[in-house]
Amino acid sequence: MYLDYFSLKRHPFRITPDPSLFFHGGAHGLGVVLDALVYGITTGEVILKVVGEVGSGKTMLCRMLEERLPPTVDIVYLANPNLSARDIIYAIAFELKLPVDAHTDRLVVMQKLQDYLLGRHAAGASVVVFIEEAQSMPLETLEEVRLLSNLETHHHKLMQIVLFGQPELDRKLENKSIRQLRERITHSFELQPLSEQEIREYLHFRLQAAGCPWPQLFSPKAEQLLAKASAGLSRRINILADKALLATYADPATRQGMRNSAGEILPMVQPKHVLVAIKDSAYRVDHTDIRKNLLIGAGMAALLLAGVGVGWWLNRDSGMQPVLLPVAAVEPEAVAAPTPVPVPPAAATVSSVVAENASSTTIEVSASSSPVAAAAKEVAIPPGLTALVAVQARASVPWLASLPGREGYSVQMYAVGISELDKLQDYFEFLELTDMFGDVYMCRISASGGLEAQWLVLHELFEGDSKAESFIRNLPPYLGQHQPYVRNVKGIACTN
User: pLDDT tens for residues 395-407?
Assistant: First the structure.
């Protein structure tokens, strides 16, 4: 549908593995793993293992191996892992087109298989079996795989095996009943998610391979959002990129200064188009214009946290009036001029901000009738503070104050050291696009066990731990990868 619109010769992001669209990646990409697998198979390694998350490129590796291995290697491809110990031998025999059927005695099948393997060995050839989704294979079948690897001559193994599976495969191989199989795995490879830079290269490579004449179709912000939503997994990248192109095609109003040979301006994929793609995928996201509603201005948001929010938190349980604490100044350009607003819980108002190029950025508070203002005339902006983090911190104040004595469970979504506000900002930028942005809160915990103090991101309360666990299972990929877990609110000790 959008091919002519973007001057493409074919679809660049189909999820069906296409060897002509194979992306080698960086120093730890699929290309490196592919070369290692080819080397291992051609040098006679018996059992190899490849582990990667769903959508990380395992099936593509299989297809590439079929192309890269020499014709002297016979490939048996088993896509169904739900085979019994008996059935796997028959499945291999059927793939090799041996003269057997389902009623042939098992010993006869084994003899024919061994004769075939000996014949191929005599001819200078070999046989390799690719087993996909090996994490779902019964333990008894995996043990049968090991026994098949025993087929050999005096000097050579007659059959090689490559296990492809999700990370659960590693946990299954820890079972003592198949420890002999685990010990025979000579090489193990783990497919890593693509980094943000590699995702940019991946998009560019795919589009160029599809005949795109333009240097860039995805804006940098669109690439960044797609990278976060996809968690670096190629299948998710393909799904989101394809839908984002379709959304751009359906939205000709969004145009940048890129022109084709006819002088027509070519639309560029923007973050809003990626957002449409996310909403149309299994990511459970619902964008609302939160930035418009919450971010009143960077300077004002910083003020809310530095001038009042911090003081309020520090004293919320004591019944004392908050005291404004001085903190180190930051670069003045990080703060925009605020507008006067009411600040809870006291009636302090912003009166002025020091000139733009001042060496220290301070906020002056008028005394009026406010005990807060009387406690401190000036307060500096906390270093590294961003507007989005400041707004979220302010929104957390009443929720945290309500925790003591409450029953229920929360989900710890994320945790960073207090010196890592940049990571927190990045996390909130993505969270802002989800329908749960308004349901998460910031909580500071004290340093312990040799670790620095941390900021926690907590989700709103759940009545029971089962509901909280269900919530975790349904999180979008980018949020789920931070290993959220259920916490009883009685065990949460915030020191804000």
Answer: 888 888 888 878 8
Show the domain range for 343: 294-383
- pLDDT over threshold 60, residue 201: yes
The verdict on 48 and 171 lying in the same domain is yes
Rounded CA gap, 23 and 195, in Å?
Answer: 13
C-alpha 297/C-alpha 300 separation (Å) is: 5
Which of 120, 132, 23 is closest to 70 using CA atoms?
120
CA distances from 284 to 159, 289, 431 (A): 45, 16, 12
pLDDT digits (tens, 9 = 90+) for 375-392: 223 323 345 556 778 778
Whether residue 324 sits in one domain with residue 226: no
Question: Are residues 106 and 181 both part of a single domain?
Answer: yes
SS3 of 200, please?
helix
In total, how many domains does the chain have? 4
Element housing 114 (H / E): helix 106-122
Please tell me whether residues 55 and 164 are part of one structural domain.
yes
Of residues 215 and 163, more confidence is placed in 163
Amino acid identity of residue 385, one-letter, is: L
Asked whether the CA dihedral 192, 198, 203, 206 is positive or negative, the reply is negative
C-alpha distances out from residue 26 to 54, 68, 189, 199, 348, Å: 20, 19, 15, 10, 54
CA distance 11 to 453: 49
**Residue-level pLDDT at 322:** 32
Cβ-contact 162, 69 below 8 angstroms = no
Place of tokens 């990626």: 274
**What mean pLDDT is predicted for residues 413-424?**
84
- pLDDT over threshold 50, residue 333: no
431 Cα distance to chain centroid: 13
* Whole-number Å distance between alpha carbons of 150 and 158: 8
Q: Which of 156, 190, 224 is the last residue in one of the domains? A: 190
Measured CA to CA, the distance from residue 425 to residue 108 in angstroms comes to 65
How many angstroms separate the CA atoms of 5 and 248, rounded? 10
Two tokens, residue 85: 């110990």
The dihedral formed by the CA atoms of 263, 268, 273 and 277, expressed in degrees to the nearest 10: 100
Q: Do 165 and 237 share a domain, yes or no?
A: no
Q: For 89-114, what is the mean pLDDT?
A: 92
